Amino acid sequence: MFMKYVPFLKLKQGELGAIKFLAPEICSDVKPYHLFLNDNNENRVGEYLDSLLNPLSKAYASKDMSFFADFTGFTDYQIIHVCELLRERDFDFTYVINNLNIDLETATYLKEANLYGNGLALKIDATAELNMAEMNSRIKKIMSFFTIAPNQIDMILDFGYIPMENLGLYINMFETLQKGLDSFLEFRNVIILAGSFPRDMNGIAVNTIHYLPMLELRLFNQLKKMSNRELVYGDFGNIHPVINTEPVTFQGSCSIKYTVSSQFLIFRGTIPGRVPEGTGQYVQKCKLLVASNEYCGEDFSYGDREIALYANDLKKGNGSSTTWITNTLNHHIAKIISDLD
After folding, report:
1. Is the pTM of this model over 0.85?
2. Closest Cα partner for 9 from 198, 192, 234, 323?
């Protein structure tokens, strides 16, 4: 079960829209990593969890795709309940165990209900202090508890935010893991997850066009050369890798974040309430993008087709932040697939 690309996506409307409109021919190469977000309201847990899956069902309707499911921030009860709901709706998912920690009650439920038929994923913070002996011991305990072999485990090495300064540090971290993990060569997949998109764009002037290097892809290509096994590319797309799981009111700028080869191309806008054109900035930026040499063409992806429609004034309104998350992430996934060797 080898995939080319693992995009990290919060379980929100915009991100799910990017999956819903993926072209069928690339779906087999993509296995999304979904972070399930909790609304932190214990009085409506059941209703929330059930309604949470409705947009997920729409996104994966008629798609033969699996995904990674990360329930960090959920209570044990919520994890068990949402897993039951996922099974009822026949989702094909792989449960993620973060940093080799799983509650015994949850683990027992997963085992007794056989909810790891698609194997398990172990996600490790690759930048943490690494005690390889302890790590290997915990991996062996997990495999023993679930009676599962390394070739049924996807190992996700999460490097988090990759700054500009020194990629060599992360290469050394990978080398430590490659040499120190006993089952490194036997895992079903080893996924390199990283991101370099900044927390905000305050350093980019409004109404300018700016390139940001995609350092996560640069790192992956270097690790691939030095790895003694096949690696899978994963990234956080055009969001900052340090995820805020708390509900917040959107205050972002009307900017278009467009993925080109090894770079993000930013058409920088501002908060809609600050300028007369408001969300019309999105359409203005689309016109600039479509007129540029970097535009991939309206036939490249659903997102590119939507961008062309807005640029040519063939869509009603200007779209919302959710619209542009869908369009730019849908393009991003298609572009990454086309650029990976």
Report:
1. yes
2. 234
